[in-house]
């Protein structure tokens, strides 16, 4: 096992033992991401964001330099690197376990060389060269389900209901095909993480169904030969499908729904949740664990006061 993969798996195992799930904090170094575009575009602002995520309790920091919202234009590798590489280096220097959010083999290679441990591929291995880079570096690979065409969609949710048959069946089958391709190109099965890709080439109904059936995804993935123990990651934070409970809520006003999605995914067996609001999500998950019927009785700590 490569040292990068070992570092990731240690972070993941420690977080799951402590909280039931690892928290991946989002740092978008982009001008046009759907929720926080432009807020962390400069290196100083991005590293301040990294510091805040770590202070709030993020187990991993996911750094991306290309928006993947519907209609977003592809960003050249050189531009991505100018945005993310100084941030990756700074985050690694702070002791963070860093994931780079990219579908570019060139970007992944440079960031892994700089100390990142994970590549978060939102293209479902559109470019097999990305798998070869991950295999050569001994890193972890998050394969997020998607289909070609995200950049051509006119807006969130603009996909017909019949784009999928049974959405869980289709997502699992297509993810397994990508996983097999990654393994063919040298990626260890131990390095794989499955992400159902909420919001990526899916309408609100598809994404909500996938979130609701997270437990089924986890169970069915674990039943597959050679895939037992593959962690499942869920990224629902602030996404447009959450507006099913509040039609007019802007991305930054979907925090309540985002937190509930993370709690649900954790209870259903997800090993990792990708979130913008780390502290609030951690509080909710920790309290949910204390309130669970099977949880042991926990006395208040000495510094807790109040009625």
Descriptive overview:
The protein is an alpha/beta fold. It has a single domain (3-291), classed as Dihydropteroate synthase-like (TIM Barrel, Alpha-Beta Barrel), CATH 3.20.20.20. The protein has helices at residues 3-19, 43-56, 77-93, 105-113, 128-137, 167-184, 204-212, 214-222, 255-267, 278-291, and strands at residues 22-28, 60-64, 97-101, 118-121, 140-144, 192-195, 233-234, 272-275. An 8-stranded parallel sheet has the order 6-5-4-3-2-1-8-7. Helix 2 (43-56) crosses helix 3 (77-93), helix 4 (105-113) packs parallel to helix 5 and helix 9 (255-267) packs across helix 10 (278-291). The radius of gyration is 18 Å and the shape is globular. The N and C termini lie far apart (50 Å). Residues 297-302 have low confidence and may be disordered.
Layout: helices, strands, pairs:
Layout: H1 3-19, E1 22-28, H2 43-56, E2 60-64, H3 77-93, E3 97-101, H4 105-113, E4 118-121, H5 128-137, E5 140-144, H6 167-184, E6 192-195, H7 204-212, H8 214-222, E7 233-234, H9 255-267, E8 272-275, H10 278-291
Parallel strand pairs: 1-2, 1-8, 2-3, 3-4, 4-5, 5-6, 7-8
Helix pairs in contact: 2-3, 3-4, 4-5, 9-10
């Amino acid at each position: 096992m490569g040292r990068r993969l070992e570092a990731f798996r240690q972070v993941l195992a420690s977080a799951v033992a402590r909280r039931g799930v690892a928290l991946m904090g989002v740092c978008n170094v982009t001008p046009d991401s759907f929720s926080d575009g432009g807020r962390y575009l400069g290196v100083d602002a991005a590293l301040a964001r990294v510091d805040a995520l770590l202070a709030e309790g993020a187990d991993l920091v996911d750094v991306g330099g290309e928006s993947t919202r519907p209609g977003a234009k592809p960003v050249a590798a050189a531009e991505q690197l100018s945005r993310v590489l100084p941030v990756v280096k700074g985050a690694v220097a702070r002791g963070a376990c860093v994931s780079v959010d990219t579908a570019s083999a060139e970007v992944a290679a440079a960031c892994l060389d700089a100390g990142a441990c994970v590549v978060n591929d939102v293209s479902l291995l559109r470019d097999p060269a990305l798998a070869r880079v991950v295999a050569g570096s001994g890193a972890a690979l998050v394969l997020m389900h998607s289909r070609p065409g995200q950049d051509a969609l006119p807006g969130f949710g603009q996909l017909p209901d019949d784009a999928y048959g049974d959405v869980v069946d289709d997502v699992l089958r297509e993810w397994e095909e990508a996983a097999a391709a990654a393994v063919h190109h040298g990626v260890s099965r131990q390095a794989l993480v499955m992400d159902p890709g909420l919001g990526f080439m899916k309408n609100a109904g598809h994404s909500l169904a996938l979130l609701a059936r997270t437990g089924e995804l986890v169970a069915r993935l674990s039943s597959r030969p050679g895939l037992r123990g593959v962690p499942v990651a869920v990224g629902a934070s602030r996404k447009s499908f959450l507006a099913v409970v509040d039609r007019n809520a802007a991305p930054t006003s979907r925090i309540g729904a985002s937190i509930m999605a993370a709690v649900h995914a954790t209870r259903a067996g997800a090993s990792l949740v990708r979130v913008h609001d780390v502290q609030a999500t951690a509080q909710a998950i920790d309290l949910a664990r204390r309130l669970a019927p099977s949880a042991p009785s926990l006395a208040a700590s000495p510094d807790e006061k109040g009625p």
